[in-house]
Write a structure and sequence with these properties.
- The chain has six helices and two strands.
- The protein has a two-stranded antiparallel sheet.
- Helix 5 runs antiparallel to helix 6.
Length: 171
């Protein structure tokens, strides 16, 4: 019984002391936490600065690309084209990439004889010429294979706005 009472006494004393932090330990832990927070804030600040630099660099690069595209357009057409892309909320680079994609789609559709897609991509007058060529090729039982390797250059030749329709010629 004596040993049981002694064990119980020791257990209760240890139980009261476990989980307690004295002032020195508390100060040390607070210092460690403060240092970790400070380091995290430094790292966050570095990441923010790096992101700002990357954004600034991307904006600068985009501005150079836009200026290069726009500088190749004569003054009158440039003003009209700028009006068109601003209304559409797109960039000149995005517009030219879209024009290149449409050109590729027209070539592919023409080679495949896909008149339905050509009709959605071309004006009625131009479509009729393509339709005649596709129908003639089909009548002669010929097939066309076209492989577009690259588009070296695309430039905006002219731009105009008629009523609610924008017409941009790309070469």
């Amino acid at each position: 019984i004596f040993f049981a009472a002694l064990a119980l006494y020791i257990f209760l004393r240890l139980f009261k002391e476990f989980g307690k932090i004295n002032e020195d330990e508390k100060r040390n832990l607070e210092e460690i936490v403060a240092k970790k927070k400070e380091k995290m804030q430094e790292v966050q600040q570095q990441m923010i600065e790096k992101a700002k630099q990357q954004i600034a660099q991307a904006i600068s690069t985009q501005a150079k690309i836009e200026e290069e595209i726009l500088s190749s357009i004569d003054h009158n057409n440039r003003e009209i084209f700028l009006s068109i892309i601003q209304r559409s909320n797109i960039t000149a680079e995005f517009f030219l990439n879209g024009a290149k994609s449409v050109f590729e789609m027209v070539l592919k559709s023409f080679a495949e004889g896909n008149l339905a897609e050509l009709k959605t991509l071309l004006s009625e007058k131009i479509y009729q010429g393509f339709e005649g060529a596709v129908n003639q090729r089909n009548a002669e039982n010929k097939k066309m294979v076209t492989n577009l390797i690259a588009i070296d250059d695309a430039k905006i030749i002219s731009a105009q706005i008629t009523d609610n329709l924008a017409l941009v010629t790309v070469s």
